[in-house]
Each structure stands twice: as structure tokens, then as C-alpha cells.
Design the sequence.
């Protein structure tokens, strides 16, 4: 069953939580791992106190602070109702307001390239930072603005749709000055995919 939403403006919040809507521009990752394309994985860099949301094949968001999966999985209201009213109950899905706190504005990294490493049977996708001005933040914690790119490793799983829960988990492999390396895959024992 197809759904249509009458919205306009910046659809990033909707697409990051539901990247299946953006399939036209995602042909390369779709060929590499079509079952993984609509998957959002959430993990944490506990040393830096960052929340990382990977919408595989589309974008990665890095937030200052630890945010719950329940909050991150809801599309942020970067879009407007077509009828120009601020009625956020008019949608068939829950949304979350864009944070008013300048420190919680996400740093966004868009897919720049993706390939399959045949020696490890893993996809390697790279996401480059969307260079926009961020408001000043006084929090005394590492600044995601120092990141240039995020690299994501993921094994394709064509049977993902038949597994429960379908959401993958992600793990921070390396967090250096200019780059973040993340592994996305089947949740391991003790890992939580949703709250």
C-alpha cells in the first residue's frame, strides 16, 4: 500500500528516518544492499557523549548528548504541512520538533560513495559533512564540527526483512579527530535496537 504525504520544505527529517522515500537518488547503495537501505541504526560514542544515527545509504547524523532511540527514530520536523498549518497531528506518523537548543542541532553527513569489499563481503560507504553554519555551543564536550567524514561498514543481509526485530545495531569502531568509523550489523546479545 503506497502512502502520500502532503508536505513541503526540507524533507531531510522525514527521509533520514524513512530513507525508502529517497530511493531515486540512492541507486548505488540500493544495488549493494537493498534490504539495508531503509534501515536506521542508532549507536553512541560514550567517550564523547554523542548519539549517532545511521540511515544507511543516505545520511548519518551526529548529535551532541545521549538521546534515546525512541526519540531519534521519529522524523524531525524539518518539513511543513502542505496546507501551511502547524498541525503535527495531521500525519500518519509521529514527529519530533527541531531542538531549540543550539547545541543539539545535528551534524549531517551525506553519502558520497559506496562500494562492496569483496574480500570481506562488506559494504563500505562514506558520508561527507554537509557544511552549514552551526550556532555557537557552550557545552564543554567534543565538537562534531571537527569531523569531516563518517565511514560505515555493513554486511549485506538479503534476509533482513524476515528477521525480528528488523532494525540493525551499530557500533563505533574508531572515533578520531577528523573521522568516525561505524560498523552496522545484526544486533548482538545485550545490544538494544530500540527502547
Sequence:
Amino acid at each position: 500500500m503506497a502512502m502520500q504525504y502532503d508536505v513541503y520544505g526540507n524533507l531531510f527529517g522525514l527521509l533520514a528516518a524513512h530513507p525508502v522515500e529517497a530511493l531515486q537518488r540512492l541507486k548505488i547503495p540500493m544495488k549493494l544492499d537493498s534490504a539495508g537501505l531503509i534501515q536506521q541504526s542508532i549507536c553512541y560514542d560514550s567517550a564523547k557523549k554523542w548519539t549517532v544515527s545511521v540511515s544507511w545509504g543516505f545520511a548519518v547524523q551526529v548529535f551532541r548528548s545521549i538521546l534515546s532511540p525512541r526519540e531519534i527514530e521519529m522524523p524531525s520536523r524539518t518539513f511543513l504541512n502542505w496546507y501551511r498549518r502547524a498541525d503535527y497531528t495531521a500525519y500518519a506518523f509521529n514527529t519530533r520538533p527541531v531542538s531549540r537548543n543550539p547545541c543539539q542541532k545535528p551534524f549531517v553527513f551525506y553519502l558520497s560513495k559506496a562500494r562492496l569489499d569483496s574480500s570481506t563481503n562488506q559494504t563500505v560507504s562514506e558520508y561527507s559533512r554537509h557544511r552549514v553554519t552551526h550556532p555557537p555551543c557552550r557545552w564543554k564536550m567534543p565538537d562534531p564540527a571537527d569531523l569531516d567524514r563518517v565511514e560505515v561498514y555493513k554486511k549485506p543481509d538479503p534476509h533482513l526483512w524476515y528477521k525480528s526485530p528488523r532494525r540493525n545495531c551499530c557500533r563505533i569502531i574508531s572515533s578520531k579527530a577528523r573521522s568516525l568509523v561505524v560498523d552496522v550489523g545484526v544486533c548482538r546479545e545485550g545490544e538494544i535496537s530500540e527502547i
Q: What stands out?
A: The mean pLDDT is 79.
